[in-house]
Amino acid sequence: MNLKRVRDHRRASPTSSASNSAMMLGVARTSALWLKYCLSLFAWAACTTGALATTTLPQSLIINSDQTLFLTDAPNGPRLTLLDRPDRLHFTNYAIENLPTAVKINGRDVSLHWHVISRSTDNTKHVVFVYESATPHLRLSWEWQARGDHGPVEHCITVQNLSGEEVWLPMVDSLRLQIPYESGQKLRHLYVEKGADTPSATGTHFEDISDGYSWTGKSSTYAFPQPGEAREIIPAEFVFDAEAPQSGWYAGIEFSGRTRISLHRTGNTVETVLGLNPEPGPFRTRLAPGEKFETPTVFLGTFTGGPDGAANQLHTWVRNVLGNPGTWRDPQYPLTVNNSWGGGMQVNEAIALRMIADAKQLGFEMFHVDAGWFRGVGDWYANPRKFPHGLAPIADAAHKQGMRFGLWVDWTQAGLDTQPGALNVRDPKVRDWLVTDLAPDWKPEEFKGETVDLGVPAAHDYLEKEVDRIITDNHLDMLEHDGYLVAQGCIRRDHPHAPPNQSTQKVIHDSGFDFVMADNATDVSYHAVRAYYDIYAKMRSEHPGLIFEVCNDGGRMVDFGSAAHADYFSITDTYDPLSNRRAFYDTSYMLPPAMLESYVEKWPTPNTDNFLYMLRSGLMGWFTIMIDTTAWTPEQHETAKIAIALYKERIRPLIRDAQLYHVSMRPDGVHWDGMQYWDPARKQGVLFAFRGTIDNEDNHTFVLSGLDTTKRYRLHCNDGSAPDRTAEGGELMMRGARVHLANPLSSELVFIEEAK
Ligand SMILES: [Zn+2]
Q1: How far is the CA of 492 from the centre of ligand 1 (A)?
Q2: Is it true that domain 661-754 has CATH number 2.60.40.1180?
């Protein structure tokens, strides 16, 4: 589609006075008057938009407090024609929605001729245009929805096979935009990498969108960073004016399978396409009679205030629309967690019970058993040598202390164990679910095996029961999934996904796992992701209060689809203070801080300053400690206990509800860095300040955000690095707040409160 900025034209247009009046009167955006105004604007847009000028256009609107979308079913297909912001910034879209022009039936190309059957016009929260093709009989639904009063709106396309024969559908993109801008207008693009493996030196990308700009970002559940190749992104893009107030639009994908976003600028036109990744392709997917194909849902919204403006809007929207209401109602969310990986695979009953006692003493709210507890990969029963009484008594011991109990599991992986209940790769039933045939000498690694293709209905049904059993048998409050949950690429020809082109398929071995590079990779991931979502939705309904952690080999599956089906993410697989802060800096542009877990691992802490620096690098979002805390000194115990209590009392409410601001450059470990929370409702906030390694850099000034320029604020340094003081919001947001730290690799929490 093609969104055009028409702000300046609007000022001279006949409808601009209506627009001004509507805003001056403070008209509610959902009122009848507002609807009338929007319809008049639509008529105006239809007249002034060249591509639409000669047509009498049916019209539908999607309205929430942040934008209005104008939708039409012109003769050549459905379109989003205009995206309108309350601050008189408007984007017109020229792109035609890409309806499929042909399908394959029995190997033959059959052209499609779509005609509109129905379109909704009276519901400004949910619009569906329905099209049908007579031969073959297919139905296509083009759907837009505003589920939140604020934030983006969502869009998807569904194609259903109503014919009696099998139909092969080509790629249907989720969303296309083609947006003309004013001549020479300077635009910026922000996107962020996943923290998979370890955060890169860049992580957050701010790029100029100049003439000739061409970018493609990809996401999958694998995210294998290769030297010299672009890293995977969290699938979303922010596009905005380089000049203040940095207004613009953002779009993203709510799907964990193989997806891509492309963004190009030619002259004054910016084009973007979002959807499944067509490579290595050609993509095709099977529709048996009655079956549906659904494009990954995308979201589209507008914002002002630069990247933090977009980020804070997205945080609230993810919480309110994608998030699990039960999880967010839980006052302990995000929880403080003690994880057993400090002792690695050695965990056993005695260690677990000792850690639970210590965790209770330190104030943690959950004890989390990581890898090492099971009989073998795919054999997800407690190892009787380590846990002679099983795991349920360990869970019960945590519960008796008022803590919750969480468990690591690689539930889609199979191994070589032969005991009843084990998922064995040599079992003929299981062999048919695997993405490839394994060599006779294949062996799993210590905690990684071969992923089964969840998109196979029999595998889905088996694993749904298995996940339910693991939750029930072990009295779980939290289930963490690791390994590669979702397959991509598969050699099987009898699975629901498209068969591969055998002449180009390749099998690659990595860490106990054989994965397939083939032209069907995107379709395999499409089916497997739907199965993963289905199983988690079912577990949520059957186990109210259960929390899901998405680890997936440490930050490889951080996306908006998982955000809609699980509760928090392991955001990287590297756990030193700098990596934790870098991953948090990047990921917090996209997802709510409460969902972003930092695992804090053992790190050299010769003094208390360093110890607090290590803890606080993981205390900005979800805090999980991955150190054997029973080895801490009494002083470290006391320091951690105070830090955890402070987190629960003063920091967690801000992580849940406050606006977040990136008030420094991305952390490099050498210079200072910081993040600021500000909650306008509580009139409270906090600045996390970190000093890097430079010897003579004792002071740093952080320019704060989100405050009222005319109000006064009290600044309180938690560690006493400076006396309390008050300052005007204008000063703090122009000149900034100076922080003094005497030692490298130290930190401070500066609490900010509106002065009475
Ligand atoms: Zn398969």
Answers
A1: 5
A2: yes
